[in-house]
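Q: I'm writing up a methods section and want to include an example of the input and output format. Could you take the sequence below and give the corresponding predicted structure tokens, formatted cleanly so I can copy it straight into the document?
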Amino acid sequence: MIAPVGNKLKLNFPHRSVTDAALTRFIQADYQADRFNFAINEQAITDAERFDGKLVLLSNVPDYSTSQIVTSYKSLADIERGFRVLKSDIEIAPVYHRLPDRIRAHALICFLALYRVMRMRLKASGNKASPGETLEILRHIQRHRATIGDKRFSGLSKTTPEQLELFEALKLPKPQKSPL
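A: Here is the clean output for your methods example:
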């Protein structure tokens, strides 16, 4: 609870509540008082209100124009989406490197390249699907091969128009039944 005491307000909870709520730039606590006392920093509130609802981008790259900084920031979202897909959607086959750091670096580079190419091709074709959604849709295509005795059989699951459209958007050949 807040109670006025002279020109200051007095709170009935410890100063930790102010720091935990990240309010220390707005509220200056008097740590020398017997009870928790504070003052409101009106100038800090006014300054914060100037930026309310705005995103400020700071850069240490002096050669970049404003539009290049904004474009770089927006591409960061693509990379972050790529990491989410990496963690959940893509299963990477074994890669034989000697050092664990090189394995991780190789997989990361391959994935980022794949994700970026997919995103650019989907966008260029006007397709609204994300790379993650695309992978989920295409995951249902299966190729089967079986051998019974001396006879070999192969098959391909039926592709949907949506899947075929994604192959076209990604500039990939459509899956075809492979010869035995």
